[in-house]
Amino acid sequence: MMTREETTTAVLKDPQVLNESTELMNGSHAVIRALLAEGVDTIFGYPGGAIMPVYDAIYDYQDHVNHILVRHEQGAGHAAEGYARLSGKVGVCLVTSGPGATNLITAIADAIIDSTPMVCVVGQVAKHLLGTDAFQETDVIGVTMPITKWNFQITSADEVPEVMAKAFYVARAGRPGPVLIDITKNAQSEMMTKPFKYDFCHKLPGYHPRLVPKREHVEAAATLINGAKRPFLLFGHGVKLAGAEKELLELVEKTGIPCASTLLGLSSVPVNHPLYAGWLGMHGNYSTNRLTNECDVLIGIGLRFDDRVTGDVTRYAKQAKIVHIEIDPAEVDKVVKAHAPVVGDAKEALRMLTPLLNPNSHEEWHAKFKELDAEEEEAITIPELSANTEKIKMAEVVRMLSDKTKGEAVIVADVGQHQMVAARYYEFKRNNSFITSGGLGTMGYALPAAFGAKVGDPEREVVAIIGDGCFQMTIQELGTIAQSGLPVKAIILNNNYLGMVRQWQQLFFEKRYSFVELQNPDFITIARGFGVDGHTCDQRENLSDSLDKMLASDKPYLLEVIVEKEENVFPMVASGASVAEIRLR
Amino acid sequence: MTSYTICVFTENTFGLLNKITIIFTRRRINIESLTVSETERKGISRFTIVIKEESRETVEKVVRQIRKVVEVLAVFGYLNDEVVYNEIALFKIPTPEGAKRLDIETVNKTYKAWVVYWGLEYVVIEKTGTEEEIFDFFNYIKPHGILEFVRSGRVAVSKSSRSLVEYLPEEEKYDYLSYN
């Protein structure tokens, strides 16, 4: 992967796309030039009336930027997210005004809660029509205010370079997030009054995230950690976003502190690492949840103590002193009060912290984890993986996929039971390998996000794990995938139910199954209709061959696996329960 | 409930008021008063927001949330005794023939309020002071009948001896959106 500087230099060498021009150009060309200057190689988009001038400009730049035509703007948004999550670059969407923009809303909301860098360029009616209820006019700035890291309306061509530079800076700096640029049609078509000149934005008066933490804060954290008898380290998405996986391992290996991951932190530490204790939260591991309430120092790195992680927060780690390392100051003390807050980038913080920590091994403490792990193995994992049920179990599919891909594939999970099963049973051995909608829980995320991820890093094997409900929310993106020809693999775990809702109705609503059973279409026929090959597996003895066939394909492939109709995901911290009350059944 | 005065310094751009107030909406905090004006530095606006809130922690969380808005340059939160504050109120009082005469001396000397406009059948009285002082005067003047009453909302300066704009980034650094 090229760094931003390298891509920019590459672009600079090409006369057609110099980031300085002597000729005057219109706003649309300036938009594309700005994207190229930022090193953008891919745009996920959908044209329409109010964005046509920009689409006309793209026509001239097809050798420089890969525009991917999605089938629905939400697909563009999730594809850009998947692209950003895997490549580490900013995902870019280009859509029209009104419905084009509102279709993007779910993906923007998803990106802000999961800290995904994204720049959405959205068409808008001409300046003189603003506020008149013109055709396809929506107040997109108003609508996206609470779900963007920043938004801005461009109404004249001259504004384009500065605003685009600011957009990319804000999207990627500090805690990343989505930025929306609403550009009126006149600003796209009118000529700039001065030659295009692109100056990168490196800081803003009102936005200067602290990367290097204050030394005294790191020292206070080190003192707490060094004094701990039963320290426990939790890491989240922030570790991956900071590229601090190596620094994290250095810390745990030096100190012997057991570490556990949030949903979005998964794969930052390989599951077979002896100091990796497992996954946290509602369907996380038995030991990690139970022992959260027994540790004496809890070290949270790059996470926001989401309610799916903490359970009842009034009974969450009350016995522990909390160290919270986090780049976003608004997250510190938001949910869990920190005794030693450290505001800064995870990588910088760990580099400063680890040298101050004493070597240790915490053997007795580790033994407690192992004890509870054994209980979980026996109660859940072994039975799930050696089932002799009539139908296949989701866990078997995921674990077999894990074995066949040596734990090195990129797993893109949708939202629901299959997501939790993917997180539980895939044995991640390589970092940056799990992409899912964590904070927003957006059904329909996986298919477009998996596609975007594959575009972001075509060298990696990308497998989407999708429920039958989720699949039908963004099923049209099969068309995008087919048109690209990229070998994106998707597995539908089909139980003909909205499985997680059904599980809750079974456990907490006296089995009153209210609108959770689906009459599904023939997914394979549909896929073939789109030009994507696939087949269905409904027998345990065919599962291995089925996965082999899917993985061997050099084209997009859909594997539908018919699974147990009413299986439940355990362990589980019931809603409102304490993490210590995690149930095995 | 405790009163808090939150001073927000921002760039002067479209929609910023909205970006700030939705943060209060989301946390269901009612804004008691809000004023916006340009500061001693050109291009920088100052919001003075008064809220009543039980928990200081919640106020601190809101302050941190406001700091996240990209155009926001600085946010300060104060208790009442940490600021010098005032507001202004205008009262439109009817003065029809034969009505009880206004005791201008009391209005001036006791309540430090001034008649700023004489209409044919009414006067407009201006009263500056704290919310309490304004309501004292309100109660005094009420028997005359009140045609219109409006308060400006609180303006406040901190009791710190430093200028708050000293905490802001240097002038040339925020002047980058030249087209505004």
From TrEMBL, chain A:
Ranges for domain Thiamine pyrophosphate enzyme N-terminal TPP-binding: 25-140
Reactions catalysed, as given in the entry: 2 pyruvate + H(+) = (2S)-2-acetolactate + CO2
EC number(s) per entry: 2.2.1.6
One cellular component term from this protein's GO annotations in UniProt: acetolactate synthase complex
Thiamine pyrophosphate enzyme TPP-binding domain ranges (all copies): 414-561
InterPro entries, sorted: Acetolactate_synth_lsu (IPR012846), AHAS_TPP (IPR039368), DHS-like_NAD/FAD-binding_dom (IPR029035), THDP-binding (IPR029061), Thiamin_PyroP_enz_cen_dom (IPR012000), Thiamin_PyroP_enz_TPP-bd_dom (IPR012001), TPP-bd_CS (IPR000399), TPP_enz (IPR045229)
NCBIfam families with a match to the protein in the record: acolac_lg
Protein name: Acetolactate synthase
Gene that this sequence comes from: ilvB
UniProtKB/TrEMBL annotation, chain B:
PANTHER family in UniProt: ACETOLACTATE SYNTHASE SMALL SUBUNIT, ACETOLACTATE SYNTHASE SMALL SUBUNIT 1, CHLOROPLASTIC
Keywords noted in UniProt: Amino-acid biosynthesis, Branched-chain amino acid biosynthesis, Transferase
Gene Ontology BP annotations: isoleucine biosynthetic process; L-valine biosynthetic process
Name of one Pfam family that matches: ACT_AHAS_ss
Family: Belongs to the acetolactate synthase small subunit family.
Name the record gives this protein: Acetolactate synthase small subunit
GO MF terms held by the record: acetolactate synthase activity; acetolactate synthase regulator activity
Pathway: Amino-acid biosynthesis; L-isoleucine biosynthesis; L-isoleucine from 2-oxobutanoate: step 1/4; Amino-acid biosynthesis; L-valine biosynthesis; L-valine from pyruvate: step 1/4
Entry function: Catalyzes the conversion of 2 pyruvate molecules into acetolactate in the first common step of the biosynthetic pathway of the branched-amino acids such as leucine, isoleucine, and valine.
Domain ACT: 5-80
The reaction(s) this protein catalyses: 2 pyruvate + H(+) = (2S)-2-acetolactate + CO2
EC number: 2.2.1.6
Signal peptide (from-to): none
Quaternary structure and partners: Dimer of large and small chains.
Gene transcribed to yield this protein: ilvH
EC class (word): transferase
SUPFAM superfamilies the UniProt entry points to: ACT-like
Cellular component terms (Gene Ontology): cytosol
Originating species: Persicitalea jodogahamensis
Family annotation (InterPro entries): Acetalactate_synth_ssu, Acetolactate_synth/TF_NikR_C, Acetolactate_synth_ssu_C, ACT-like_dom_sf, ACT_dom, AHAS_ACT, AHAS_small-like_ACT
Keyword Metal-binding appears in the UniProt entry: no
